[in-house]
């Protein structure tokens, strides 16, 4: 990799990391119903990182998890944030191999939906693992896990992807 490109990636990684840490603390629009939580724009730094590289994505996800922890969110929400490593890294690897995906509306929409599904499965699994260790009754949690966390994550993820893609394409035009 050329030194200039490497410096650009490191700069983007630093900026996205800072944003990912700050969003859980300062974003005014957030809804927390543990284990579900919805913070508008919380996935945007992750998606922007995915458009750059897998290593930037992994770093931003770790920072985002730290941001949720530092903001005092319930630990199950922090685990959900850490579960983003699954969809984020897979998505970044896919985009590295098929960068044209985001250029075609249909392929981008399909990519967004599949990523949302993987994202939701990862978050539900994080909750299931967390609650199986704590001894929580799963029958009481079915609605919360599969409707609020599962379905809610798909919708939230897809919205944040569109926001991130719009930002990315706008910045790319300026460069």
UniProtKB/TrEMBL annotation:
Keyword Transmembrane in record: yes
Coiled-coil stretches: none
Keyword list, A-Z: Membrane, Transmembrane, Transmembrane helix
InterPro entries cross-referenced by the UniProt entry: ECF_substrate-spec-like
Pfam families listed in its UniProt record: ECF-ribofla_trS (PF07155)
Gene Ontology cellular-component annotations: membrane
Keyword Repeat appears in the UniProt entry: no
Transmembrane spans: 12-33, 45-69, 75-95, 107-131, 143-168
Protein name in the entry: ECF transporter S component
Lineage, uppermost ranks: Bacteria, Bacillati, Bacillota, Bacilli, Lactobacillales
């Amino acid at each position: 990799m050329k030194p200039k490109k490497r410096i650009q990636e490191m700069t983007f990684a630093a900026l996205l990391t800072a944003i990912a840490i700050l969003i859980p603390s300062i974003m005014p629009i957030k809804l927390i119903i543990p284990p579900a939580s919805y913070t508008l724009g919380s996935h945007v730094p992750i998606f922007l990182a995915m458009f750059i590289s897998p290593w930037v994505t992994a770093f931003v996800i770790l920072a985002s998890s730290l941001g949720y922890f530092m903001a005092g969110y319930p630990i199950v929400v922090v685990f959900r944030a850490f579960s983003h490593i699954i969809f984020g890294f897979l998505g970044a690897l896919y985009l590295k191999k098929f960068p044209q995906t985001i250029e075609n509306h249909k392929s981008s929409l399909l990519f967004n939906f599949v990523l949302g599904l993987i994202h939701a499965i990862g978050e539900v699994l994080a909750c299931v693992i967390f609650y199986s260790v704590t001894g929580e009754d799963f029958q009481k949690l079915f609605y919360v896990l599969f409707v609020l966390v599962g379905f809610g994550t798909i919708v939230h993820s897809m919205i944040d992807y569109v926001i991130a893609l719009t930002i990315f394409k706008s910045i790319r035009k300026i460069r």
